[in-house]
Amino acid sequence: MPNDHLKLDKQLCFPLYAASNLLVRVYRPLLEPLGLTYSQYLVMLVLWERDGRSVGDLGQCLYLDSGTLTPLLKRMEKAGLLLRSRDPDDERRVLISLTQQGLEMQLEAKKIPQQLLQKVNVQNIEQLRDSMQDLVEILDKGV
């Protein structure tokens, strides 16, 4: 069939898209007790690794632009999880730092990866994650 390559099940993008949507659904009840959305959880993960990052650095880590991040960070600041401040050395840069509440949330969040593994019983999950990370790096070079 000449249009076989246009079938949905032949596309790389669709299983990635579907898996991403479904994985966010699995995370939702795990994050609910923390009051976090999946996107907010990703921001917290980056800040727990290293606090005091710029919006640009956060965007680079999460593959998001500042137009997407800024409203998300404003909501998180309003919730008391982080603070946004201008870099004293460069007023154009906005720095993001965790509040005490944001820091303390990490203790509760430590349970989430194990809870996820119990819900998503995938063999060779590390191999799958590494393959996806390889794909992200390949795609990032092409953008």
Q: What are its keywords?
A:
three-stranded antiparallel β-sheet; Arc Repressor Mutant, subunit A; mainly alpha; globular; 62% helix
What does the model show?
It contains 7 helices and 3 strands. The chain is mainly alpha-helical and 143 residues long. It has one domain: Orthogonal Bundle (Arc Repressor Mutant, subunit A), CATH 1.10.10. Strands 1-3-2 form a 3-stranded antiparallel sheet. Strand 2 (82-87) and strand 3 (90-98) form a beta hairpin. The two termini are 32 Å apart.
Q: Report the mean per-residue pLDDT as an integer.
A: 94
Number of strands: 3
Percent of sequence in beta strands? 5-15%
Kindly report the name of the CATH homologous superfamily: Winged helix-like DNA-binding domain superfamily/Winged helix DNA-binding domain
How many domains make up the 3D coordinates?
A: 1
Gap between N and C termini: 32 Å
Structural class: mainly alpha
Quick description:
Helix content is 62%, strand content 12%.
Secondary structure layout plus pairing:
Elements: H1 13-31, H2 38-49, E1 53-54, H3 55-62, H4 66-78, E2 82-87, E3 90-98, H5 100-109, H6 112-119, H7 125-142
Antiparallel strand pairs: 1-3, 2-3
Helix pairs in contact: 1-6
